[in-house]
Amino acid sequence: MAESKELPQFPESYWRKTDIESYPKLEEGIKVDVGIVGGGIVGITAAYLLAKQNVKVALIDAGEILNGTTGHTTAKITAQHGLIYDEFIKHFGEEKAKLYYEAQMNAKDFIEEIAKELSIDCEFEEQDAIIYTNSDDYITQLETEKKAYDTLGIESELTDTIPIKAHHKKALIMKKQAQYHPIKFLKVLAEEAVKHGAKFYENTTAIDVEYNKHPAIITRDGHRIICKNVFVASHFPFYDGQGFYPTRMYAERAYVLAIKSKKNYPGGMYITAEEPTRSLRSVKIDGEEAWLVIGENHKTGQGKSTIDHYKALQDFAEAQIGVEEILYRWSAQDLTTLDKLPYIGRISEEEDTVFVATGFRKWGMTNGIVAARVITDIIQGNDNPFSELFSPSRFQADPSLRKFARINADVAKHLIKGKLEFTDQTIKSLSKDDATVTRINGKRAGVYKDQEENFHCVDTTCTHMGCEVEWNSGERTWDCPCHGSRFSYTGEVMEGPAKRPLERIELE
Ligand code: FES
């Protein structure tokens, strides 16, 4: 590859360069103990844990395994999830804030132990996690967070100097965190699960759960996976179970550049306290050190042209690190719950055989492991110290309700705004590799013109709950601002909660 400071034309996650076993499509009805939907960190870890205990497991994924958020993560294994511990102490109390920290650290230990036990070369290495600020407004917040760390017994240091040459005035270090290569780790867990009898199926989309004596996962092709327990590990739950998840979470995107720089990486994993978020870690690519530069979070389907987010990261990297070559670019989507704690447990109080894990707020490498362990413990009747903390049925009036109202007002705004606004670009004036929203036969339509000048036209009404999707130029997808569904330019579902593709419109 010629060295280039230009952004790569197409997004591609470096993690996904690793060879991963492929699995067949489900072509018949089957009966198992546990049916898992979703082949990311949660589903695969759960399949591994259950299969090892001789539980009969089937795991299905709508596409390829490890190609969702897990395949596009930054793979920091840390309990430092932004400035949250002071907030958690205030909202949930000291005991629960400490439990949250312990759950994350248990996940880190789990990854390290399993990597050792199975001799997985997943580049696991201990690193400090560092949150830093260059803003006077945040100095006090870092000091308050440090007090919260001390209250909870978190090994840490407040400092004025950090190894990296980013502008900063103060930093808070959480000691002994880690980073790794998530796909190298999880592909082995998937293989081990299969060795222990788990069945994996790809290109198999779950569309519903039905009940007879036992629950059954229904696939788009009409097959049934009859099971004693269903584990919804599909990122946004494909099945709601009256848990009202679309009103209890919002989706955000974040962007990643893998960069070659002349500067040596000084160690540590970094994140800014203030917006716009800038986050850094190192990675070895083809034996050479590279920098991952991450940030530019925004709600899915909202904000500026998505390619501009990559450019903003590129500018930051150029100024702070000096860019020799941009090796990869990719982005990921994450879900945040109303009180910032993930939802892990029974999908609703009414349905005790269907489980859900979602809302990891960008910190899925630890929360994903926590989720797999909590739910597999509940299914097997084992006690788990964290199950109550993450239960989706928890009720916390503050801050949930205030934010609930705001998020739903936002959804309503997008339902209406999307239907009224049209760009005046016509299809004819479209450049190659560009898209526009227009009206065709009276319908709001999204049109993408590909590199070969073929047009791809879809109805922009999201098939989930009817919001209007927006063009994502960075990934060439149609993204829904309401609950984060994403569709390819041909309309196929790439990310739920939508289950059906966008309707295609033929251009006459
Ligand atoms: Fe809910 Fe589009 S994702 S309306």
Keywords:
508 residues; alpha+beta; FAD/NAD(P)-binding domain; Rieske Iron-sulfur Protein; nine-stranded mixed β-sheet; eight-stranded mixed β-sheet; 24 strands; 26% helix; binds FE2/S2 (inorganic) cluster
Molecular structure report:
The protein is of the alpha+beta class. Residues 418-424 have low confidence and may be disordered. Helices cover 26% and strands 30% of the residues. It has helices at residues 41-52, 85-92, 94-117, 136-152, 182-195, 306-320, 364-379, 387-390, 397-420, and strands at residues 30-37, 57-60, 76-77, 125-133, 156-159, 170-179, 199-201, 206-211, 215-219, 224-232, 249-260, 269-272, 278-285, 288-299, 325-337, 343-348, 351-358, 434-440, 443-449, 455-459, 470-472, 477-479, 486-488, 493-495. Among the domains are: 19-73 and 183-247 and 340-396, FAD/NAD(P)-binding domain (3-Layer(bba) Sandwich); 397-508, 3-layer Sandwich (Rieske Iron-sulfur Protein). The strands form four sheets. Strands 3, 4, 5, 6, 11, 12, 13, 14 and 15 form a nine-stranded mixed sheet that branches. It has nine helices and 24 strands. The chain binds FE2/S2 (inorganic) cluster.
